[in-house]
Amino acid sequence: MDRISALPDELLLKILSFLTTREAVYTSSTLSKRWECVWKYLPRLDFACHLSHRPALTGFLNRSLPLHKAPVIESFRLYIEELPHMKYEDVRMWFVVVVSRSLRELDISYHACPRQDILPSSLYACKSLVVLKLRGHILLDVPPRMVCLPSLKTLTLKKVFGLKGESLGRLLSICPLLENLLVHFCRGRDYDVINVGNVIVRIGSLQRLTLLMDYYCQLDRLEIDTPSLKYLKLRDPNGRQ
């Protein structure tokens, strides 16, 4: 056995943490048997799926994620480009797996069309989640009952297509300890005007608030009730701040 393979698992995980997740899995599977299972305990998982390697990464995630054994996933980041043949059911199942592992941070950029309900209902009841960042063609569908994000401190919704004041309000209502909120309302898919409706932010714990609106957005009413606020940035559809 070589000297590196004789190191404790904690140090081997530290070494693998300097690689991308795919590199870490490949390295573990090609070295000695001592390394074979080490990657399964990586606390941070980061994947990017571009058009050129869609089939490879999809198959890789379908095979590898169910084998992951870390009791706590510190962060899961996923970037997906426009992928017309990807099954959204596969993407949804990936999130089911990571949410079940006491997930603390979820960062998703999903740009596959059409907009899909890729977020499982279990996400909205994840007690361990501290950071949630969503971008792109993601449908927000907060279940009507038995949901709460009691640990969530940071929420970023950046150009989530179809996001309106009503759906934002439902999500904020289950985040009692939120401290940082960034929302970027965007235009419709074909530059259609989108009516955001009423945007109401009532969070006693909120300290930082950023609300941005694209040119093709219409806002009926904005109400902010945040007694703990320390930072505020607003940009209307005309670009005025």
Quick summary:
InterPro entries: F-box-like_dom_sf (IPR036047), F-box_dom (IPR001810), FBL13/AtMIF1-like (IPR050232), LRR_dom_sf (IPR032675), LRR_FXL15/At3g58940/PEG3-like (IPR055411). The protein is of the alpha/beta class and 241 residues long.
N-to-C span = 62 Å
**Weakly predicted, low-confidence segments:** none
Number of domains: 2
Write down the oligomeric state.
single chain
Number of strands: 10
Largest sheet: 8 strands, parallel
Helix- and strand-based class? Answer: alpha/beta
How many helices in DSSP terms?
5
* Average residue pLDDT: 83
Helix proportion range: 10-25%
Order of helices and strands: HHEHEHEEEHEEEEE
- What percent strand? 25-35%
Shape descriptor: elongated
Rg from alpha-carbon coordinates = 20 Å
InterPro entries: F-box-like_dom_sf (IPR036047), F-box_dom (IPR001810), FBL13/AtMIF1-like (IPR050232), LRR_dom_sf (IPR032675), LRR_FXL15/At3g58940/PEG3-like (IPR055411)
Organism: Microthlaspi erraticum
Protein name: F-box domain-containing protein
Question: What this model shows, in words?
Answer:
- The protein is of the alpha/beta class.
- The chain folds into 2 domains: 1-38; 39-235.
- It is 20% helix and 27% strand.
- The protein contains 5 helices and 10 strands; from the N terminus they run H-H-E-H-E-H-E-E-E-H-E-E-E-E-E.
- It has an 8-stranded parallel beta sheet with strand order 1-2-3-4-5-6-8-10, with helices on one face.
- Helix 4 links the parallel strand 2 and strand 3.
- The longest helix is centred in the middle third of the chain and has 12 residues, at 88-99.
- It is elongated and about 65 Å long.
- Residues 1-38 form the F-box domain.
- It comes from Microthlaspi erraticum.
- This is F-box domain-containing protein.
- InterPro entries: F-box-like_dom_sf, F-box_dom, FBL13/AtMIF1-like, LRR_dom_sf, LRR_FXL15/At3g58940/PEG3-like.
- It holds the Pfam family F-box.
